[in-house]
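Annual report, structural modelling task.

Input specification for the iron/sulfur cluster complex:
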Amino acid sequence: MPHDLINNRKAKVSADCKNCFGLCCVALSFAASADFAFDKGEGTPCRNLQTDYRCGIHKNLRLNGFRGCTVYEYFGAGQKVYQGTYGGIDWRNNAAIAQEMFAVFPIMQHLHEMLYYLYEALSIEAAQPIYKDLEQAAQETEHLTYLSPEAILSLYIPSHRDKVNDLLKKTSELVRSKAKNSHHRSARKRKMTKGRDMIGANLRGANLRGADLRGALLIASDLRKADLREADLIGADLRDADLRGANLLGSIFLTQVQVNSAKGNRHTKLPPSLRIPEHWLISEII
Ligand code: SF4
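The model returned the following structure:
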């Protein structure tokens, strides 16, 4: 599939705060913790949300105790609900439908998340044998995002998600089997990645090329200089994982938010669609 087309589709499931109306800063709840400086209930606007729907501490979220906001991904669902589902109606001036909007938002978020991964799969050359199925699933999911609020609220997401998930797993197998063929999969690697819980694990310099790390708990693990090329990182929890000098080129299903939640430096190699977070560079200076 042409890269321009994929990039256009991906842009639609990427955060675009200037075309949103602070929905994630209102609809969702959070509790005072290491990630949030205070409690906030569902449907209550965050006290840092300004009248122009911008965050008043956007440039210093981490310094102000809101690390959670820097690692939250809503996959562009807010702008779709605002501009698409509700045709530009503002929750502030329409209390009668605000609660409904807040209920539609997380469902849209799930749908956009599926689209994000499907579009990525459609950009991977190794997934060519299943492009037709991936495209069909993408079109079906896109269709669901344009339903009325009532229809969205009555969707049963798990069955659709299972279908999408099967295709993403097939994509993963196609990518990783290529890596395995070009690189012997050692018994040591199997041992290292056995099970999902690798919290605090010492994986420094590990050969994890083509590893299945779906949903792995890699919190605070030491992945310095690890080889993660062609690894499947969908849903992997990388909070505070140390990725300094790690090679993630060709890794799949990695999101910017997962990267933001980890530690790294300018020597960390990321897939081209992702960027080095500013805080990685600042921590180098400090
Ligand atoms: S701190 Fe800023 S980004 Fe986080 S919820 Fe509040 S307004 Fe939104």
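The first helix runs from residue 3 to 12.
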